[in-house]
Fold each of these.
Amino acid sequence: MNIPIILLVLLSITALSIPIIHILFGKKGISYIRYLTAISLSISLLLLFGSLIGLISQESTLPHLLRTDLLGSFFGFIVILVSLFVVISSFDYVKDHSNEAIYYSLLLFTSIGMLLLSFAIDLLLIFVAWELMSLPTFILAGFNKQDKLSNEGAVKFFVLGALSSGILLYGISLIFGLVGSTNLYVIADNLASLNSNLIPLVMFATIALLAGLGLKLSIVPFHMWIPDTYQGSPTPISALLSAATKKAGFAAAIRIFAVIFPLFSFDLSFALAIVAVITMSLGNLAALTQKSITRLLAYSSIAQAGYLLIGLVVLPYSDLGLIGLLYHSLNHAILQATAFIAAALVRLKTSSTDLTSYQGLSKIMPITSFCLAISLLGLAGIPPLNGFWSKLVLFGAAVDGGYAWLAFIGLINSAISVAYYLLVIKRMYMDEPKTVSNIIEPMSFKSVLLFATIVIIITGLFPNLIYDLSQEITNSFFNQ
Amino acid sequence: MSTEINYLIPWLVFAIPILGALLMPIVARIGEKIRDYYAIFITLISAILCASMLPIALAGETFHHQVMWISALDITAGVLADPLSILMSNIVGWLSFSIMVYSMGYMKGENNMTRYWFLMVFFIGSMQLIIFSDNFLQLFFGWEGVGLCSYGLISFWNKDHKKDYVGTVGKKAWGIPLAYSPTHAGSKAFLMTRVGDASFLIGILTLFYFSGTFDFMELSKSHTWAVELAKSGLLIPVALFIFGGAIGKSAQFPLQEWLPDAMAGPTSVSALIHAATMVKAGVFLIARIGPIFVTAVENISLIMPFFEFVAWIGAITAFLAASQAMVSNELKKVLAYSTVSQIGFMMLAFGVAGLTSNFIVGYVAGFFHLTSHAIFKASLFMGAGAIIHQTHTKYLNEMGGLRKQMRLTFIAMTIGAASLAGIPLLSGFWSKDAILASILGVESSFTLIALYGLASITAIMTAFYSFRMIGMIFFGKKSRHLSKLEKSSGKHIHEAPVLMYAPYVILAILTLALGFTGPIYEGFLANSLGHHLEYAVGMEIHEHVFSINLIAVSTSILAVLVGCGSGYLFYINGKLNPIETVKNIPGLLTLQKFFVNRWYINSLYYIVFINGSLKLSQLIHKHVEVGILDKLNTVVPKFSIILSTLGGKFDKYIVDGTATRIANFNILISRNVRKIQTGITEQYVFFFALGIILLTLLLFG
């Protein structure tokens, strides 16, 4: 079975049929649309899961464009899982919004883009998938038309998104000019025999690729849009941006850099290490003084990107690098999605993202507070939650790859980050609520939050589950 | 102990409280009474299980049971029941039980008791997990668990009423207030111990990197890791990083500042966590890893600097904290400083163990002091809780003359304080004497004299503040506060309810008992710990026979005479007036102020770390997030021009497309959203360009 092609067809038919259903059935059709979206994503998720555990064997029909391997299925699984979370929690979040139908359609198009990005091995296809992923999110970010914050965030996102696409394309064109191909593996072959005078151009192309990808990877200093956009967008969309599109970006980065990285005659690792240090330190320090939960999570997300970068830094030196990167990608996606979705529910019910509205939340919204607390503890890397293990592997990878100082800085950063995560938990559990009336927590949110929380705890208690999988994916990725 | 079921006992010791705690909210639904008894019942079961393992400890045997945990990294989980862990678990188990009973009385009528019981029981489970862990990683889990519970319990009175504050409100040192709300104190404790934890983690991960194992038994069997560590010069740093964890958890210098403020929690919590058990976790860790490091190195001189460091930290902390205990006006804080100081003594003993020719002497002395201190300090704390409960004040100068009205408490606390002071034939006398005697075995004469001197001076101060405390509570005239209290309530102050005094009276009796059998207990410790070190760890042990060291004994008796004598004259007999004396002798007032202000260490930390990092965060907020408003607007166009030469694509997007959008957008912003404005797109683009330049410099540079 060629998973990406099948899913591409399935999801695009669904996405395209949504506006038609809306026209045919009008308001009544909305509930069909919701379930249709959720079901098609669930089917995709099952297929990807099947291929991950080896139940479904994959075959490749377009070997030059798509590589149907475990790595692709893994990232596909992450992005589709997060999309599903986002869709289910949107049932209540965008309920009765005038453009609800198109919201789901756009979400599906983004998912397709992310999915293709997980499998693509041709720079042009990567670019197309990149745009397919990005364009709908610009609209989704500005979905609340009346909200000035939402508009502001969306415009900034769009301006910088366009800039990064341009730079990405510039890098791709440079590479094509140098080696005459856009297929990554052909590029790798040709790079080896490249005239050494042209190396500076290769370096420059690399920088352009990195800067272009960097926008979605949320690495400093390409991160500027993140706090504004995460705060302005509908909060489930922030979950999507932080947990899914970032991971798809990392998938592309792994594809590109794992193949051509080892061939570079210059040291990209050191540059990446410096960027990683800046990213995690700035994210954590800036998060300390935030007064709104979405901005706090936005900076936390930037800091986490810094940890993930460690994996890229040591990619050529240690297998643990890729293992840790995969492991933390999945964990971080689940943790961050849970935190954002919990924040979305609070915003929906109290129409505020201010940290002050979290005072005594545990008494008003017990389930939401519990799930948020667990996910924050996970992000902080408190054992035995899953975030602890994957950070451990990443720091271990840094040591193994000869970047012990990077692990050290990462540890210090981890220690700092506890302060602001704890602050939110303290507000929820220690402070007195402003009102005492209970708030009903909708079923859709509760089911997503509880499911994710259980996953966080179980994968924390049995770290083997994901670690072994990451190891297997890494082995098969390097041995093909 | 060979049948399968017996292997389960150590697992159950920590599993029952941890799982039991998780059921607490459900049990609480049934009824409040049931919930309270349930919490105590779980603690009792765990304690009985600990006691059932005592025969193993008596025989000096060890058993070790493992299961696979993380197969990919070949990490196992397991329990290690040896004399050290079994003795420690009994101390923890039975003290917890008595304090849980006390809690029933002390916390009567409080709200949120489900949270209290949950945290207390979960704490006990985590502590037992630390004790029985056979590897660093599992131990670290428990380590974080007790930290979390400690945080929750210190800030238990989370409404931050002024009466729950610790310290005197309004007083400042270097502009930093010296009084903290419970939640502030909780966060302070958590963050400060996290510093130690980070160091601990660095230590064990580096160790893992070199040895490939977290397992204590494997570490003590294979010695190649130590050789390699020593070769790369990391042996001492790794040991010190691990010791960093102990420094944080046991509140040793320079991370001692959190413990005094941790007294903001309920007294029962202070008694259990911040006096008797958790703060001993650091000491326990050193007892656990000390022998491993000693056996791992070929020549003990390789690891000597580590032990020397431990000994010095212990001695300095003991001195520093005792000096502050002499001037504190809060009953619980006197006890807190005294705890820090006594733990310093234990650290000193374990450090000295590695500096002498016979490891076991210091080792036994340290563990002996741990036992005796845990018992009498828990008793003192519970007594103090009862007094605060009955007199409605925590300040010593608002007490006085209570010995007739609270006779039982008076007797129990006097026994405890006398033991703390080191009055002969009480448990504290024997253990302190053992520590002093062990110092005399140190080979380097400078270290010997310095450490011995510090320890002796600290012993004098200890005796002094113990008597000062007893004098100020029970002797002298009744304070105005107490007379007013009696008048307004119309009743005399009387003994606390039986549920409260029973536990501390029993512990006082135990202190007496341990005092009478001191040398026997010491002999028993030397026997079983020595047997264990020799056969399980593989250390060379010389027979340690109990003997009275004349120098040590005379020093400690002299210290008691000087310390207790002056304490007696000032506070019990009333011959000398402490306030007048301080005024009359020049320099004493300054010194007193210096001690009261905690040597200014606390203020220094606040100024450097708290205010410093807030400043940094604000700076980042101001300059990076909001942007460097005025300067950039002229720079951005210039950069746009440079960038526009990069290529046609770029040109199209930046100059044509975006520029108009930016312009329109800026107008939009300035017109509509001035209030919510958080950043300017032009600057974002500028930073984007800056990023590319940074990467270029990094790669080409």
Amino acid sequence: MRMLVVMTIAASLSPAGSLAQAADDPFPTKPVTLTVNYGAGGGSDAIARALGRALEKPLKQPVAIENIAGGAGTRGVTAVVTAEPDGYQIGVATNSPMTIAVHTVKGLSWGNPSTYDILGGIGIVYNTICIQADSPLKTLDDVVKYAKENPGKLKVASIAGGINQYTWDAFAKKANINVRFVPYSGDADGVASFLGKNTELAALTWPGLKAQVEVGKARPLAVFGPERMSSNPDVPTFKELGYDVVTTSDYVVYAPKGIPEAKRRVLVEAVKQAVSDPDFMRVLTAQNIQVQFTDGEKMTRQFTEIFNATAPSTPSGK
Amino acid sequence: MDLLGNMLGGFAVALQPVNIAAALLGALVGTATGVLPGLGVLGAMAILMPITIHFSAVTGLIMLAGIYYGAMYGGSTTAILLRIPGESGSIVTTIDGYEFARKGRAGAALMICAVGSFIAGTISIVGLSLFTTLLADVALRFSSPEFCLLALLGGLTLVRITGNDPAQNMVMLLIGMALATIGVDAVSGDTRFTFNTSTLALGFDLVPVALGLYGLSELFHVLASNEGFPRATTVRLREMIPTRREWSRAWPAIVRGSGIGFLIGLLPGPGSLTSTFASYGVEKAIARKHRDEFGKGAIEGFAGPEAANNAVATSALVPVLSLGIPFTPNVALMLGALIVQGIQPGPLLLSQHPNVVWGLLASMYIGNVALLALNLPLVGMWVRLLRVPQYTLIAFIFAVSFIGVYTMRNSYWDLCVLVGFGVVGSVLRQIGFDLAPMILGLVIGPIFEKALRETLFLSGGDLTIFVTRPISAVLSALCVVAVVGPTIAVWITRGNRLSQQS
């Protein structure tokens, strides 16, 4: 697969291709590779495949999906950002490898969000805190009050080192509470432990917990989004409850830095159209991800903010 | 009868021509994947995943499930004939299955495995159809403390499964566990022992390590010696059908293996491998008459494990169908096939999309019958495989192994691991070390470590959590028995002997 990519890049560097790019140069004229930083079959892969099909319509070229997993999601990012910036190699990823794993994985050839080019955000994953459905603690205020009176007694299932821990820590600091943080390696493990009643609380992603909320096993206290979710308007945000912590995990489409402006415009336009594609929306909605196009510049600012915030306090040796 | 109605509805879905075709295609691809070393189930499922988009969700799911359980049928073939495991779930089969084949009973061994897989598959599907929701609730009672103790118990008991000195096996187990710590730490996400390289951050994946240790080192061994693979001189029907005596030893092991596999499949972790070790350990422990045969071609030593890995492939669907929680990458991939179709997996799947769930279950009955029908005639063909000139066969296995390992995650590093462990495996065999405990260490090491750390986070560092939870308390007691039991047994026998002498 990588060989193939290298070969197509070589082909694009042949004399005909390297002539000065006129603004009306047709682009793309050959298949585009969309790299996803996780293996086939996961949530990210499903999104990449749906995005690939949706991109084929505006680009009028086949879009090949390439799975490069490993390195906590950073390997796929490396493959994209070190590729030739000719517009034929783009990638899709969440902010986790780019803003959090980037601090822990050693030997990366890229760093803060200025070292690559975000074309746009395509979907938003909300983070939430849920409590056991049968808990006597009904509201977030109840939980905070109880946690203050009984420091270290409540337990929360979450994921270490990622956006979930970053979010939880920010909330716990604002609320000034001491809750035992139990880190799991993913949504599946965390949700299973919560369902097994090992912890009272779960601080995970909304997609990971929503199905359990629907069957009445988990009760959402609030979400960390900038505003309430359109799908569940009855769930308040932490911000309106007085805890100013706003974090989301975002899926973005990105590319190596330095793509000629004309080509970049074509790609951004295609991404914008793909996001409103009904099939694409169906795949994201099935995972409870809010479908929304966000401008690349805004995404870059947001990523930089989390990148800087997580840089010094990244947990290590836990 | 609600169940009957559901099941009939399921068969109505599964018997649609496109779904029968999907089950057959999946079973066929699965068998081929299982037979070819290096080509993993996960890889095959991932490659065919995109095709499922063009069909309905249930069709895609039927095909992917077919690959999964089909591979468990095929995995034993090369393990028995060539002592090279086709899948990591067939590593144990290389011990007794191969020795059994060397006695000229290769055909019979393959047939026992095919029938055993069928029985295990069928028992598990019945269990799955009847008790899905109940089993999911039981599975949730197992959490980090229980996983930690299960892994510990597995390590303590299974170092005794091979004939070698348990202390020597323990060293190999610990080396395996140490190797597993290299790469990205599953709890904190930090990288460990990587010397700041992104290559070592990939860690040692089970597939290239197992294939190197078992597959490549076996090929090196064959090339270096003049012994070669066991030769099948005649392929007469009589030699392919197990005798009545062989059956009577095989079937209780198959039933036990099915039960063990079914229970292990409910829990997280690479169940197809751990279940086979557990089944082998149980068979050896309870064997009375034929205990000495273990390691030298005991029927129970491969009939049980091969049934166990098939049962896992079915019961692993329990947490995913009833809770929407995937515990293994294979099952996560099947969830992906649902998500791509816009179906939300979760506890509501059964009530919102009964056709998908019951259609899948019904298709698995059909798939298992198809696999039995497919695999029995193939036995003769596989045995003839041994007549292929060795230089062709060896070159072919080398090529398939390299392709298989590379396609896994497009990494040259995994090829280095494959070759490196091929050499390590050869050396260790030469000096008489057993390789199985090392693989086991590589598998249970991460489970043990992760579960231990999660447990200590959960209890705030308090170790009494291991005895205050009921299931944990039982497991802790078993661990103690596993350590002191054999020593006490030795004392008792020695005491008896002394008292008899005096």
